[in-house]
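Ops channel
N.P.: pipeline sanity check, posting one input/output pair.
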């Protein structure tokens, strides 16, 4: 979900300092036998670090499938999937301390406008599946119904800006919303105790609500504005790796695309892979979430991962117009489709 802008700016500043200090791509290296080993030695695998944006969930299934079905190994890669640290994945990927990461369009946009060379190399999900969710007994059927209600958020300016944007279309006033910073509090606990609605990703929290028998009213932000149908999440790397080792990026993306293709075509088997890889996850939630999300990875795009400049420009322009960016984004440099395979 969205994060506090000041926090993001601090992370970006740290990334710039790391790069200025001469940090290279420190995590990619060869492992296994050297050139003096016999011809019968096992194939060398290159170590690659992939950092998630959040705890593992069905947004990431294709990554685990690519790893556990051997697709990365087929490309000569030993991909280690790691949880994000306190600073998230963007700063470490930008500084070359992780080769690839899971991010989101807003984070990449902020980074690019701060001079940090993150590049999005694939859209994990083609359309924005996030929105504002409320228990049905709060009677929130449209954005105007936010008035007089308590919203639980993370303290990011983007949250209020999006609420304001969609409420204005219903002739409503965001100043009449009580905004509560609930941090990482559990949604289901918060709506019973402190708030009326919150911003969620339906594929996870919405499906969990359904399994709990908790009926929700869901207002998707993309339904109010084409500019808000942005990519979240995305896969990222940095400009240095793209320039110095494009073959690594191509190999990683060939395997990753195969992993998501597997998750698209075989959601139940893919869910089982994720549950095995991350056994602490609720298996029923993983399965039902995967069945809902699998057709949405590619959706109406010509191939999984495809990104459009109009989507990057539309959301960045929306952010700039609302003073959420200090300068306009060069949308064409923020992403690339160059490394997506034409065929699997």
């Amino acid at each position: 979900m969205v994060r506090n802008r000041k926090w993001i700016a601090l992370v970006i500043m740290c990334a710039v300092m790391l790069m200025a200090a001469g940090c290279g791509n420190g995590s990619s290296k060869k492992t296994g036998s050297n050139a003096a080993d016999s011809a019968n030695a096992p194939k060398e695998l290159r170590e690659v670090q992939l950092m998630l944006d959040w705890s593992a969930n069905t947004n990431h299934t294709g990554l685990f499938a690519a790893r556990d079905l051997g697709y990365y190994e087929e490309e000569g890669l030993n991909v280690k999937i790691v949880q994000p640290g306190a600073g998230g994945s963007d700063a470490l990927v930008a500084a070359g301390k992780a080769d690839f990461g899971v991010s989101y369009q807003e984070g990449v946009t902020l980074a690019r406008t701060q001079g940090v060379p993150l590049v999005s190399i694939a859209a994990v999900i083609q359309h924005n599946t996030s929105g504002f969710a409320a228990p049905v007994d709060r009677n929130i059927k449209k954005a105007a119904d936010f008035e007089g209600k308590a919203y639980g958020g993370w303290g990011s300016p983007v949250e209020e800006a999006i609420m304001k944007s969609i409420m204005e279309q219903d002739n409503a006033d965001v100043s009449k919303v009580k905004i509560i910073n609930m941090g990482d509090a559990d949604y289901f606990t918060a709506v019973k105790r402190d708030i009326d609605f919150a911003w969620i990703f339906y594929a996870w929290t919405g499906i969990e609500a359904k399994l709990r028998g908790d009926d929700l009213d869901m207002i998707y932000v993309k339904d109010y504005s084409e500019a808000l149908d942005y990519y979240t999440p995305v896969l990222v790397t940095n400009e240095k790796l793209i320039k110095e080792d494009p073959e690594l990026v191509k190999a990683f993306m060939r395997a990753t695309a195969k992993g998501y293709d597997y998750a698209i075509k075989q959601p139940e088997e893919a869910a089982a892979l994720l549950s095995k890889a991350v056994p602490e996850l609720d298996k029923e939630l993983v399965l039902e979430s995967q069945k809902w999300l699998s057709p949405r990875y590619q959706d109406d795009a010509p191939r999984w991962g495809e990104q459009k400049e109009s989507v990057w420009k539309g959301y960045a322009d929306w952010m700039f117009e609302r003073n959420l960016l200090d300068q306009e984004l060069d949308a064409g440099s923020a992403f690339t489709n160059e490394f997506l395979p034409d065929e699997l």
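N.P.: looks fine end to end. Confidence is low (pLDDT under 50) at residues 1-39.
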